[in-house]
Hints:
Chain B is an alpha/beta fold and 409 residues long. Chain B has twelve helices and twelve strands. Chain C has 22 helices and six strands. Chain C has helices at 14-24, 30-49, 56-72, 75-88, 92-104, 109-112, 115-127, 133-141, 144-149, 163-173, 181-190, 224-233, 236-249, 256-268, 273-281, 284-287, 299-309, 316-325, 348-363, 380-389, 395-407, 412-424, and strands spanning 194-197, 200-203, 213-215, 218-220, 313-314, 368-369.
Amino acid sequence: MRVLGRCGRLRGWVLLAVVVGTFCGFGRAPAAHAADADLAKSTPSGAVFFAEISGLDAWIDKLQNSELVKSLPSNPQVQAFYASPQGRKADAGRKAIENQLGMDLWTLSKTAFSGRVSVALYPHEGRKEPDAVIAVRVKDAAALDKIRERITPLLTLIEDQISQTTGPGNVPVRSIDGKVFIAERDDWIVAASTSELMNRTLSLRAGSDGSKSLADDAPFVAMTKQLGSQHLVRSYVNLELVAQGMGGRFGPEKLDNPGVSLLLGGLYELANRSPFLGSTLDLDSQRLVFAHSIAGKPESLGEKYAPLFAAADKPDAGSLPKVPGLIGGLILHRDFAGWYKRREELLDAKVLPEFDKFEAGLANLLPGKDYATDILPSFGRNLTFVAAPQDYAHLNGKPGLQLPGFALVWDLAKPEEGEQTLNLLFQTVATISNLNAGQQGRQPWVLSSESYKDVQIQFGKYSQKPKGDRLPIVYNFMPAAARVRDKFVMASSVDLCKHLVDVYSSPTTTTATAKPTRNDFLFELTGESLANILDANRGMLEARSVAQEGKTSDQAQTDVTTLLQLVRAVRTLRLTTGTEADGYRVQLEAVWK
Amino acid sequence: MTTRREFLKQFGAASLVSLGATPPSFLARAAAATEAKPDERILVLVQLAGGNDGLNTVVPFGRAEYYKARPGVGIGKDAVLKLNGELGLHPAMDGFKKLFDEGWLSVVQGVGYPNPDRSHFRSMDIWQSAKPEKDDVSSGWLGRALDSTVEQHVGKVPGLAFGTDKLPLSLVASKINVPTVRDVKGYQLQLGPGNESALKTHKQALERIASRDASAGSDLDFLRRTARTAWSSAEKLKQISASYKPATAYPGNALGNKLRTVAEIISGDMGTRMFYVNLDGFDTHSQQANVHQTLLTELSSAISAFVGDLKGHGLADRVMVATFSEFGRRVAENGSLGTDHGAASQMFVVSPKCKGGVIGAHPSLTDLDDGDLKFHTDFRSVYATLLDRWLNIPSEPVLGGAFRPVEFV
Amino acid sequence: MANEMQRTDGEWSRREATHLLWRTGFGASTDEIQQVTKDGLDKTLDRLLSPPQESAEFTKSDALLRQAAFDSGNIADLKTWWLHRMVASANPLIEKLTLLWHNHFATSNAKVDSVPLMAAQNDLLRRESLGSFRPVLHGIAKDVAMLVWLDSNSNRKRHPNENFAREVMELFSLGVGNYSEHDIQEAARAFTGWHVRDGEFWFNAIQHDTGEKVVFTKRGNFDGGDVVELCLEHPACPRFLAFKLLRQFVEPSPSKEHIDALAARIRQHNFEWRPILRELFASRLFFSEPARQSIIKSPIELLLGAVRQLKAKPNLQSLARLSAELGQDIFEPPTVKGWDGGRLWISSTTLIQRANFATALLKSNQLGSISFAGLRVEDDVNYFVELLLARDVGPEAVAELRQFAKNQTGDAETRLRSLAQFVMQMPEYQLT
C-alpha cells in the first residue's frame, strides 16, 4: 500500500484493476452447478428493484463491427477529445488495462456480458442508500479464468484489506474492508453489500435450505407471467414497497392539474394499484422496443376512470392518416365529455374554478354555446394531430422559417352539430387572425370555399399572393377546414386538408372488435420527413448551435449534418399506451433503416 | 390589548430562550409590538388589470336603475353581501364582508380622473404615473415617492414588484432601482455545489472582504454596503421562508401565493415599504358572470388570508392594502352578457388602521358621462392620503399638486 | 482644465492596457491584454479606430444569426445576434458605440414589434458609430422604428404630436433646460407629415404644416431636417454629447470643466467621431486616477466581460435573458430615456444575481462552457486579480484570497474555477 500511496496518479487505475481482479478471484473453486435459469432464481426475495441483462455480447459485437464505430477515429470531435489532456489520460488508462488483461476492452466487455448480469436493490432500514446484490454469469468459464490469472498478482498489493470466510455451499467469500462481499465459481461471480445478502444468495445457489428467491415474490411472479423472461434487458420495480415507503400512494387521489389528469390520470391511478412496474428492452437488427408494463385492468378502477381508457368494445386510437410526406402526429383517445363531466370526482377542488374561467374564455370564441352541454358531447373519442409538409401555393415565394403544415382532426359523435360548432370556431379564429394581420400591416386573407370530392372545403386566400424569398414566419399558415363523414379537419394548409379528405372519405377499415391492445394514445414520427423539414430550416438550427453552444459556424454545420443523418436513419418512432390482456403498457418503438 | 401584548411578550421570551441567540425576527418584533413608527409602515398595492367591473363588485342593489341597466349580468338583491341599506358586496367576497364587519375595509366610492381614457394601456399609464394631463411615462407615483425619501432607503429594498416580469410603471424611480422578484428562490446567494462547511467558509470570506472600509461615498463603498445588506437579508429571508408558518391558511390561488411571500418578506423586515402585486383578467367583455366570480373570490380570499396572517404575526398594524384598476366598466351591460370599458369605480383599502366603512356617495346611475359613472374623488386624492397619512411621505412634490385627502385613514 | 484633453504622458503598462480595452470594448482576455501592452497606445488606437476586416468565421456566423432572427421574427434571436457581435467582433469599439447610441436613442421593440425595423435602426447607429453624429440625428428623424416608437403618424398638420420634437431636443441633442416649450411646439409643426407607410418613411405632404415657424428664436419655413440642423448648431448639443461620452467612457458624473473641454473638441471636429475619440482615449483625463475603476459595469459589460475574460463559449440566449433580469434588455429599454446606469444598476436583488452569475458560469454549464485546462500560472491569486480586477485590492484581501485558494480541494480545474468565482463575487468586480 505504501507503494500505491506514493504513486498517486497510478493509484486509481490499479485499484480499478484490483476490483475487477477480486471479482475474478485468486484461483478456481470447484464447480458446483450451472443451471441456465434466469438470475432472479438465485436473487434473494424482497428486492425493491431488479434488472437483468442477457445476451448483450452479441450486440457489443455488432456495435464493434458497425460503420459508426469504424468511422469514429476519423471524426474530428473524437480526434479533438483524444488530443485533449483528459482524452490522453483516458487513452493511456485503456492501454494500461488492456496490457494487464491481455485483451482489449471490447473482448473484456463481451466476456462479462456473454451470459446474464443482474443488479438487485434492497431497502436498508434507517439509511438512504439501498443494499445491493450484483451477479454475473458468463457463457465461457475459460475466458473468465484468463482474466483471473492476469489479475491475481495485483491482488497481493491489497492483501491486508481482504479477509476470507466460507459461505453456504462451501463457497469462499472474500470481503474488502467489510464493505463488499464477493464470491465466485467457475462461470459466475456475485457481489453483495452485506454478508447477510451474500449468504442468502449462496444458499439459493446451493439450494441448501428452503429460503425464498425473488422469483418467488408474488409481484415478480405476476410480472414474469405478463412479460416473460426472455428480453435483452428487463427490470422490475416492486411498486407495493415503493408506495409503502411513500405512505401508501404515490400522490393524492385527486390530481391538481387538468392536463395531467386527462393525459396520464388513468395510468397514474392504475400504477397506484399495481404491485409492480416491469420494463423490457428488446432489439433486433431493425427495431428497438422499450416497454413499461403495470398490472391491472381499467375496469377495476370503476366508472369514473373509464373516460381515460379505450373501451373494450369500441374502436381504439387506431393509426395516423397516411397523408403524403407524413412527418408525424398524435392521437389522443379519450371520452372527453365523460372526463369533463366527472372532473369534480377526478380533480382537486382548487383547480375547478379554472374551468369556469376557461368556459368563459371559450364563450368569446363560441358565443352562445355551453361547453359541457353543447360542445363536448358532439365530439367523438379521437383527437388527432397531424404534421405534414406545407405547400406554399398561397405564396409567391417561401417563408424564411418553414414550418410543417398542421392539422387537427376531431372525431364527431354528432357530425352535424359538431360541424356547426367547429365551423363557427374556425371562422372566429380566422377573423381574429385577420384583425391581427390588419393591425400589424400584413395582408389579410379572404375566406373562400370549394368542393373537393363532394366535400366542401373552406379556406383562406390572399387576393394578392405575398411575394418574397424569406417571408415572415406568419405566412406559413393558410387556414382550411372541412367535414369529411364523421371527422372535422382544421388545417394550416389547404393541401394537407385535401390529403386528409382523401384519406377519410373512403370508409375506414377499423372494426369494432377488441384487439389485444386497446391503444388510448399514439405518437409517431417519420425520420425521413422530419429530417426534410429540419433540413429546410438548417440555417436556424445552425444559428441555435452558434448562439447557445458557442460553436463556430463550421462546427455547427457539421453538427447539424450529423443530426440530420441520425434522424434520417430512424424510419419511425412510435410511442403508444394501451390496455393489454393482463395490464397496461407504455411502449416506445424505434424502427431504423 | 394589554393581555394580548403580555401574552406575546411571554411567548416571545420563552421562544427566545428555546431558540437560542438568533430568534426569527418576526417573533422578536411581535414581542415588542407596539405602535409602528411611520417609517415602518407598508403599502401593498394590488392592481386589478383589465378594468374591474366595480358595479358588480360593490353592488348598488338599492337602485332600480342598476337592474334596469343590467338585466342579464346584474347581481340579485338577495345574493349580495349587504354593507348597508343600498350597497352590497359580490357574493364571492365573503372574506371582504368579514373584514368590513370588523371595520378593516374601506370602500372608497367614485374614484376616477377628468376626461377618462378608455384604452387599457393609456389609462393604466395614467393611474401608474399619476399624471393624467401629461403624456409623461418616465416615472411612477410610488417611484417618485421613493425618490423623495431616498436617504431613508440606503442599503434596503424599499420597493418590490412581485411576480411580474417587468417593473410596473408605478414603481419606476430615477434614484432607486426597484427590483422585480419572481420568487424567493431568486433572491438567494448561490455558491454552487460543495459541502456545507466549505460554502460557509466561502461566504464568510466574501463577507470579510466586503466589510473593509472604502472611502465614504465612493462607488466601492456603496457596492460593499449593498453587498453586505443583500447577503445578510437573503440569508434572513431564507431562514424565515423555511420556518415561516402562516397564521391563516392561504387559498391556493396565484394572488394568495404572491401575498404569502409578501407576508414572509414583511416578517423578514427588509425595509420594504411598498409592494406591488398584480391580478389579471378583469377585461370581462362577454359571459362575465363566472370569470368575475372567480376573480373576486381570488381577490377576497387572498387578501383576507393575508391580513389574517399578518394579524397572527402581530404585523397587521403596519400594513395597508389598496386595490386599483385602470377603469370601471360601463353602467349598461353589452349584448353578450358582459360589460365594456368604462370610467369611475371604487378602490378598496384594507388595514386595521383604516377607518372602515363606505366612504363617499355612490355615483349617480342616471347622471352619466357618455354612459359611464362620473367620478367625484380624484384618484390622486387617494394616493395623497396614502402618502401623507399612511407612508408619511409628503404627497405634493410626488403628485405635482395638493389633493384633498380622503377620510379613510 | 483644458489640458485634461491633452495627450497622456503617463506610464503604459498592463493596467493601462486593461483600462483601455475595458472602456473601448467588452472586457479582455489575458492574450488580448498582453498584445495591447506590447503594441502600445498609438498602435492600439489605430486598430480600434480603423477597424480591421472581420474574420471569415465571424462573417459567416454573423450572417447566420441575423438571418435566423429575420426568419423567426423573434426579437430574442436579434438580441443573440447583437450579443454575438459584441463578444466576437474584431471591432468591439464599434459595438460599444452602437450600444451607447441605442441607449441614447432608446427605442423598444415592445412597441415597434418588428425585427427588421429594429435591425435597420441598429444598422444606422453602427454605420455612423465612427463616422459623424450629423447623419445619425438626421437618419433617426426618418428611422421607421423611431417613428413608430414615438407615434409620428399621429403628428398631423391640425393636430401636431409633440412626442418626437420633444425627445429630439430633450433626449437626443440638447438636454433639459436648453429649449422652451414653444420651441417644441414649433418644431413639432416642422415634423408634421413625417409618417410611416408600408414599413418605410413617407413624407405625407398633405399633413405637413408649411407655415412659418420660430425655433430657438430663428424664423423660417422649417421642415424636420431644418430643425435637426438647428439642434446640431445649438451650443448645448456638443455639451450634451460630451456628457454622454464622458459618462460612458470616462467617469460616472462628469464635471462641468470636463464637459466643456470635450464639447470644444466635438465642435472643433464638427461631430466627426474618429478624431474626437482618438483624442479622448489618448487624453490625460481618460487615464487619470479618478477615472480608473470608476464605472459600475452595466449588465452587458458584466456578462460579456466575464465571457471574454475567461474565454468561455457562451450560451448567448441565456445571457440575453440574464441581462434583461439584471435590468438591461437590449432592444427593449424600459422607456425612451433608456438606462440611466451607474448605481441604478445595483440593488440588493441584482447584486445577488450578479454574484450568482459567477457561480452559474463557473460551477455549472447553464451559461456556457469554460476550461482552464491549458492554464499554467505561477501565482493563481495574482493571475485572477490582474485579469479580473486589474487593481490593487490591498494586503488583507490578498491574504484572504490566498487562504481561500489554499482551502480548496479537488483537481486543478475545480480549484481554479472556485478561485475565479470568488474573485468575481468581490464587490470590486462590479467596477471597471
